[in-house]
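If you are new to this repository, start here. Below is one unmodified record pulled from the training split, so you can see the exact layout before writing a loader.
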Amino acid sequence: MNMVAIVPRIIRLRDAPGYLGMCKDYFNQEVRPCLTELQIGSKGVGFDRLELDLWVTYTKASSGRAPIRRILWETNVATSSQVLPAVTGFGGSGRASTEDDFAKAVTHAMSKRQKGT
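And here is the target side for that same chain:
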């Protein structure tokens, strides 16, 4: 019998820090302000798994530093024509990250996900 693990699209607040492999306090302080909170019922809060993944992608692209505390992407950033906020001063490569770098990283991550790799 083939068992397929299904990862939910919406990750509840209690599970989001574990999904990212971090403690609750760090998640609430550094990650949560960058995400869109989704209401689940009358009291529940969750986050889009793809947005959590984008946070990780952006953090990796920023040499492991957390993103600036503001909304960094639109719901459909891969096809959005809106210009993303410039991010400078991060990284150790001697060159600043740009909004084009972030958009390219997101597009690359989204294309891999759509191809199933």
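Two things worth knowing about this chain: The first strand starts at residue 10 and ends at 12. The CA atoms of residues 86 and 98 lie 6 Å apart.
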